[in-house]
């Protein structure tokens, strides 16, 4: 999936077009719980997501690798990294997770991108008043 | 009218004690497949496995099973089959594993394959025969291997599978 | 693409809960929602068709859609669960007070008539049980031609693992027949936490056998067609529209939509067979 | 229809290497063609406080104006055209509208007005346009491009009157609008602003200093890994500094070979930013690199608006799941640079 557009070594100029080559996708998610006071550590969150993967995609799903890059315990907002092939699986299992320890919960997926940098500059977050 | 496409998996049930094979029935195999798919591929796999999945044919003597899966997800479902370690049938737990021999688009191609496969098996058995009588019987069986003539009991599976109409 | 819609929020008598559902929907970015009144007639006793509560009684101030400067639009919808053909009474005056009309057929025969004959907007696909019938190509195509859409609800899939299997399996069987056309995805949420964001639903659509673009259409453009279809149901071929002189509070922000109906494109004209 | 869950929507990353000293370098056009910039972030390795020159460039970024409920036909106002559009460049972008749902409008510095309309609005407007390239099967979105500097669009012209009647009597579009003008600023926009409810905004600057950062070798690092690392720095991912790949939570590590930066400075600025200002910033960063004694580098990331109807030049832009359009410029001491241009699914290949 790698296409070299043009290469001009002599002038020190080089251009490479990489299509669909991003090895990972990044997600910014926020967990909403019925009881807002519940504390959830990073390890618990990751375990919880793995259970979600396991119910929806079984043992194969539970083996899906993803990383919890950053987690803020107060807002329960996390940055996840998952290999591009596993994005749909991870995302759908987050969507279908409805209960955390018998209380209703919901994952709000705030942004998804093949570039981690894109998560730092989302113009939809611009608040002017 | 568009044909609904399926894939037929021709599998062999391998058990340590062949007498246990007789305990098997369609429903037991189907339940085993469903539960292993649910374990390996979760709810999503279980959902896929509930559409048009069926055990088309089972020969309890030879341990041959025909499984039908929808064409677009057969690979996913197939990938769970190696994880079957036992089949629960008639209150008994039969340790076994499924060995997939052939994947075909119609029952007929699977059947053709099965005939060829069985012929090969007979050829392999031939040198192992203990007396002349057995040898003769195996030779006769090999000669009878063809799709048009299904008279031998050994190939009972074929006669039955032809009764299933193809979709 | 048009705005995101969720055409099925379950009605509850608990006003606070309904308010929080609508607020969450607005927060997630849905611009239009419909409150669904279920109606399940039984053979034994005659039941009243529910009447929709006016929106301003349910919620004092409509919340602003996230990231936008307009308030959410709230509609009413009636879903009739049909187990007998007499359960749907065409021309019933009670139906007229609803913006959208849906049926949930429980047998193949009723499914056929819902697709081909009944003057409705939405056919609900049951997701809480194994399908009692197969989706035949002919009625499904008929429904697609008439502009009637099929609805899949996802909140049952969040509640329970068995339901999730039924939801995915029934959705996939439906997609086999309708090829992703005329499908809408909605929540049927009873609680705010059963709602999911529009992009989440788009992704969920992939599990139901839709493509990326089809899944996004299922919560936007197809829903828009449903609204247009519903409008034409109330009019004569979408050309003449009569209205009683009562102010229609639900249409406040889509004022242009009204005038433009008269010049609706041919494809969006009603397919009133009768 | 398929059950293939492995696929993800398309994404494109263009990686380019060149030198500022090369006359044929395209950096200026690449910077200037991304018209609507939302955020610029700069990473200065081995730097503890904002250099004064840089600070002054950042504070001199043009102000922009938010106009509430701007009736779109006001953009065709004769006075506005004469004082703003024909004189210099106007940057205008609809605000609080989403490109995949609503009608979005952009006024580009070359005097082109781009309307990305849904089907209903397009049909009501009755002006020539073409279906969006991203609509595949169903044509639900249409793009109308109007060159306001064209003779037929001069006030009183045929096209002008048609568009004006379309926007006044048939489709009365009203939306919040972000506006900026180069070089006139607010003064040139006065004819428009005087009729409306507006507010002035200055781009927001924020600065963070970072310490003990593992850092890859920017010259040789593979583009995706480098962008990932840069993203991790900008999102404050802590596991980067721990750097243990066996961690249960995250296996993200800094690409090898790596060095450790004792300190670094991250400066970002947010708002409707003009390419001209970004260009200044690039020049200033080059001067900064020249002044610094070390074998040093610096990076600049510019994010475009997600809901802009155009990305680079007048290439159409849309949102499937995320409308990322950004570039990262990596500048080195010896005047060479690397630029990474990235777009999402509903976008064409960057220039």
Automatic annotation (TrEMBL), chain A:
Q: Does the keyword tRNA processing apply?
A: yes
Name the Gene3D superfamilies for this protein: Ribonuclease P, Pop5 subunit
Ordered alphabetically, the record's keywords are: tRNA processing
InterPro entries named in the record: Pop5/Rpp14/Rnp2-like, Rnp2-like_sf
The UniProt GO MF terms for this protein read: ribonuclease P RNA binding
Mind listing the GO biological process terms from this record? tRNA 5'-leader removal
Q: Which Pfam family, any one, appears in the UniProt record?
A: RNase_P_Rpp14
Keyword tRNA processing, does the record have it?
A: yes
Single GO cellular component term: nucleolus
- Superkingdom of the organism of origin: Eukaryota
The entry sums up its family as follows:
Belongs to the eukaryotic/archaeal RNase P protein component 2 family.
Q: What is this protein called?
A: Uncharacterized protein
Organism of this sequence? Anabas testudineus (Climbing perch)
Q: What is the lineage of its organism?
A: Eukaryota, Metazoa, Chordata, Craniata, Vertebrata
Q: Which gene encodes it?
A: RPP14
Automatic annotation (TrEMBL), chain B:
Return the Gene3D superfamilies for the record: Ribonuclease P, Pop5 subunit (3.30.70.3250)
Where is it located? Nucleus, Nucleolus
Member of which family?
Belongs to the eukaryotic/archaeal RNase P protein component 2 family.
For molecular function, the Gene Ontology terms on record are: ribonuclease P RNA binding
Q: What is this protein called?
A: Ribonuclease P/MRP protein subunit POP5
**Gene Ontology, cellular component aspect:** nucleolus; ribonuclease P complex
Note one Pfam family from the annotation: RNase_P_Rpp14
Look up and give the organism this protein is from.
Anabas testudineus (Climbing perch)
| Domain of life from the UniProt record | Eukaryota
The UniProt keywords, alphabetically, are: Nucleus, rRNA processing, tRNA processing
Residue stretches spanning the membrane: none
Species lineage? Eukaryota, Metazoa, Chordata, Craniata, Vertebrata
Instruction: Report the function annotation for this chain.
Output: Component of ribonuclease P, a protein complex that generates mature tRNA molecules by cleaving their 5'-ends.
PANTHER family reported in the protein's UniProt record: POP5 HOMOLOG, RIBONUCLEASE P_MRP SUBUNIT
For this chain's UniProt record, which GO biological process terms are given?
rRNA processing; tRNA 5'-leader removal
TrEMBL record, chain C:
By its UniProt entry, which PROSITE patterns does this protein fall under? RIBOSOMAL_S2_1
Give one GO biological process term: rRNA processing
Q: Does the keyword rRNA processing apply?
A: yes
Q: Which GO terms describe its cellular component?
A: nucleolar ribonuclease P complex; ribosome
Recorded superkingdom: Eukaryota
- Asked if the record carries the keyword rRNA processing, the reply is yes
Q: Which InterPro entries match?
A: Pol/histidinol_Pase-like, Ribosomal_uS2_CS, RNase_P_p30
Q: Name one GO molecular function term.
A: structural constituent of ribosome
Q: Where in the cell is it found?
A: Nucleus, Nucleolus
Functional description taken from the UniProt entry: Component of ribonuclease P, a ribonucleoprotein complex that generates mature tRNA molecules by cleaving their 5'-ends. Also a component of the MRP ribonuclease complex, which cleaves pre-rRNA sequences.
Q: Which family does it belong to?
A: Belongs to the eukaryotic/archaeal RNase P protein component 3 family.
Name of this protein: Ribonuclease P protein subunit p30
Name of the gene this protein is made from: RPP30
From TrEMBL, chain D:
* GO CC field: multimeric ribonuclease P complex; ribonuclease MRP complex
User: Which Pfam family, just one, is annotated for this protein?
Assistant: Ribonuc_P_40
Biological processes annotated in GO? endonucleolytic cleavage in ITS1 to separate SSU-rRNA from 5.8S rRNA and LSU-rRNA from tricistronic rRNA transcript (SSU-rRNA, 5.8S rRNA, LSU-rRNA); tRNA 5'-leader removal
| UniProt-recorded Gene Ontology molecular function terms | ribonuclease MRP activity; ribonuclease P activity
Q: Record's superkingdom?
A: Eukaryota
The identity of this protein, by name, is Uncharacterized protein
Q: Which gene encodes it?
A: RPP40
């Amino acid at each position: 999936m790698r296409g070299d557009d043009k290469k001009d070594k002599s002038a020190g100029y080089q251009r490479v077009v990489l299509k669909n080559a991003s090895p990972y996708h990044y997600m910014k998610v926020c967990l909403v719980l019925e009881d807002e006071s519940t504390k959830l550590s990073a390890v618990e969150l990751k375990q919880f997501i793995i259970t979600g993967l396991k119910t929806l995609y079984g043992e194969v799903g539970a083996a899906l690798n993803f990383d919890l890059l950053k987690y803020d315990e107060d807002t329960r907002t996390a940055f996840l990294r998952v290999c591009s092939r596993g994005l749909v699986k991870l995302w759908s299992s987050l969507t279908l997770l409805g209960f955390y320890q018998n209380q209703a919960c919901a994952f709000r997926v705030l942004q998804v991108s093949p570039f981690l940098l894109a998560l730092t500059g989302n113009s939809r977050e611009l608040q002017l008043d | 009218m568009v044909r609904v496409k399926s894939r037929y998996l021709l599998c062999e049930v391998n058990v340590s004690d062949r007498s246990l094979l007789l305990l098997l029935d369609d429903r037991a195999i189907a339940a085993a497949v469903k539960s292993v798919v649910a374990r390996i591929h979760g709810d999503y796999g279980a959902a896929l496995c509930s559409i048009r999945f069926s055990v088309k044919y089972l020969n309890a003597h030879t341990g041959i099973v025909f499984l039908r899966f929808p064409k677009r997800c057969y690979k996913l479902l197939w990938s769970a089959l190696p994880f079957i370690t036992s089949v629960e049938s008639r209150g008994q737990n039969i340790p076994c594993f499924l060995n997939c021999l052939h994947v075909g688009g119609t029952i007929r191609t699977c059947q053709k394959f099965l005939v060829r496969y069985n012929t090969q098996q007979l050829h392999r058995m031939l040198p192992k025969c203990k007396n002349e009588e057995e040898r003769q019987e195996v030779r006769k069986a090999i000669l009878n291997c063809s799709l048009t003539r299904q008279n031998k009991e050994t190939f009972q599976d074929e006669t039955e599978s032809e009764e299933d109409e193809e979709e | 693409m048009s705005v995101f819609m969720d055409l099925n929020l379950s009605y509850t008598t608990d006003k606070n809960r309904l308010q929080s559902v609508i607020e969450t929907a607005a927060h997630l970015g849905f611009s239009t929602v419909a409150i669904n009144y279920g109606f399940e007639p039984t053979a034994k006793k005659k039941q009243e068709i529910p009447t929709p509560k006016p929106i301003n009684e349910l919620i004092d101030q409509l919340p602003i859609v996230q990231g936008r400067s307009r308030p959410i639009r709230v509609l009413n919808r009636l879903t009739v669960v049909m187990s007998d053909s007499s359960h749907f009474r065409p021309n019933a005056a009670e139906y007229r007070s609803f913006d959208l009309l849906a049926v949930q057929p429980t047998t193949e025969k009723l499914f056929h008539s819902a697709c081909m004959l009944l003057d409705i907007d939405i056919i609900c696909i049951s997701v809480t049980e194994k399908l009692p019938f197969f989706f035949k190509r002919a009625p499904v195509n008929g429904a697609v031609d008439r502009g009637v859409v099929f609805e899949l609800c996802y909140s049952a899939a969040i509640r329970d693992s068995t339901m999730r299997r039924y939801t995915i399996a029934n959705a996939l069987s439906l997609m086999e027949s309708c090829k992703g056309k005329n499908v809408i995805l909605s929540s049927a949420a009873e609680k705010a936490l059963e709602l999911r964001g529009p992009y989440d639903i788009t992704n969920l659509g992939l599990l139901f056998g839709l493509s990326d673009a089809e899944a996004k259409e299922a919560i936007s453009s197809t829903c828009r067609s449903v609204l247009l279809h519903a409008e034409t149901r109330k009019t004569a071929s979408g050309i003449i529209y009569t209205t009683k002189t009562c102010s229609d509070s639900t249409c406040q922000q889509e004022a242009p939509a009204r005038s433009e109906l008269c010049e609706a494109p041919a494809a969006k004209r009603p397919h009133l067979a009768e | 229809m398929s059950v293939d869950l492995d696929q993800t929507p398309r994404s494109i990353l263009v990686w380019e290497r060149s030198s500022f000293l090369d006359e044929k370098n395209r950096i200026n056009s690449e910077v200037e063609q991304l018209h609507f910039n939302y955020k610029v972030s700069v990473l200065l390795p081995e730097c503890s406080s904002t250099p004064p020159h840089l600070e002054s460039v950042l504070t001199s970024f043009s102000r922009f104006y938010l106009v509430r409920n701007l009736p779109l036909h006001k953009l065709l106002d004769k006075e506005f055209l004469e004082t703003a559009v024909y004189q210099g460049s106007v940057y205008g972008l609809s605000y609080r509208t989403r490109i995949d749902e609503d009608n979005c409008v952009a006024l580009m510095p070359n005097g082109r007005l781009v309307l990305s309309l849904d089907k209903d609005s397009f049909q009501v407007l009755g002006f020539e346009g073409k279906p969006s390239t991203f609509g595949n099967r169903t044509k639900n979105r249409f793009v109308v491009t109007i060159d306001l500097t064209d003779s037929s669009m001069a006030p009183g012209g045929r096209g002008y009157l048609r568009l004006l009647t379309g926007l006044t009597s048939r489709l009365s579009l009203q939306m919040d609008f972000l506006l900026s003008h180069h070089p006139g600023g607010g003064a040139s926009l006065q004819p428009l602003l005087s009729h409306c409810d507006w507010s002035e905004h200055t781009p927001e600057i924020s600065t963070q200093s970072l310490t003990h950062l593992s850092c890859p070798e920017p010259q040789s690092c593979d583009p995706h890994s480098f962008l990932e690392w840069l993203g991790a720095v900008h999102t404050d991912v802590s596991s980067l500094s721990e750097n243990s790949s066996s961690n249960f939570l995250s296996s993200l590590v800094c690409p090898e070979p790596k060095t450790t930066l004792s300190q670094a400075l991250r400066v970002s600025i947010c708002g409707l930013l003009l390419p001209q200002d970004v260009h200044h910033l690039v020049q200033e960063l080059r001067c900064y690199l020249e002044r610094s004694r070390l074998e040093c580098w610096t990076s600049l990331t510019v994010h475009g608006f997600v809901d802009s109807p155009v990305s680079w030049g007048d290439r159409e832009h849309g949102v499937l799941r995320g409308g990322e359009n950004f570039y990262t410029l990596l500048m080195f001491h010896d005047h060479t640079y690397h630029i990474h241009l990235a777009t999402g699914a509903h976008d064409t290949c960057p220039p």
